[in-house]
Amino acid sequence: MALTFKKRERYQIQAPLTSLIDIVFMLLIYFLLTTNFMVDEGIKIKLPQAKASAPQVQKEITIYVDESGQAYLMDKPVGLDQLFSRLKEMIGKDQNRLVVVKSDRRVILNKAVKVMDIAKAAGAGRLCLATEKGF
User: What string of DSSP letters covers the chain?
Assistant: First the structure.
């Protein structure tokens, strides 16, 4: 007597993908919406306006000058007498490092020019004054 075994069909297990797709879609919408509202935090200054301004994409050293003439190096207040030495050590041997001066539009021009002179004396090969686009 020969025994024959009948093969049973295996159950196909399928995970419900509908809820997973909904969750991924909601996360995508969340990240798309939140990236549009990210604001660059820092010192409150109003930049001068220019039509020919272009966005900077490199990592740069930023110096802020507020309305009263106080200088801030990378969001930390610094006196003009200390600015030279701090910039000198930040620039180091990279003479091509970009130094951006973001000066309030109501600041006395002489104070902004002093900061630019200090940056140039500290070895900044590339120096620019930040502006807002448009009038």
Answer: ----PPPPPPPPP---HHHHHHHHHHHHHHHHHHHHT----S------EETT-----S--EEEEE-TT--EEETTEEE-HHHHHHHHHHHHTT-TT-EEEEEE-TTS-HHHHHHHHHHHHHTT-SEEEE--EE--
